[in-house]
């Protein structure tokens, strides 16, 4: 069964960073709740998978508990959601979205690897 993963909805403009954070937590919590239920998991089951209490899980889903990076990564892994989901990004588009050119990164990596292989294959000079 294929499960559609939908990003948290974009919300209203708030005048304070605290208001934005609360709105983000609430939207993400609601989206996590929908996704968890869509997978047929209880809050207790998911909480156990990520090492938190059921109460904490309920508070996260209600937007009452701030979502830490560690918890976000754990929840994403437990629910099969890519990291870019939290930002509403397609994981394939994530590198370009944050300014990384994949071809340049690959070329640089390949060149560095070739230099290391060549250095390892060259016998040391005896003095």
Any overview of this molecule?
The protein is mainly alpha-helical and 127 residues long. Helices cover 57% and strands 0% of the residues. The N terminus is likely disordered.
Summarize the structure.
By secondary structure, the protein is an all-alpha fold. It has helices spanning 17-38, 43-50, 54-61, 69-79, 94-97, 102-121.
Record keyword descriptors for this entry.
127 residues; mainly alpha; 6 helices
Secondary structure topology:
Elements lengths: L16 H22 L4 H8 L3 H8 L7 H11 L14 H4 L4 H20 L6
Helix pairs in contact: 2-3
Low-confidence stretches: 1-9
Rg (CA only): 21 Å
Termini separation: 66 Å
Number of helices: 6
Question: Which outline best applies?
Answer: elongated
Strand pairing plus helix content: what structural class? mainly alpha
The chain-level mean pLDDT equals 77
Element order: H for helix, E for strand = HHHHHH
Portion of residues in beta strands equals under 5%
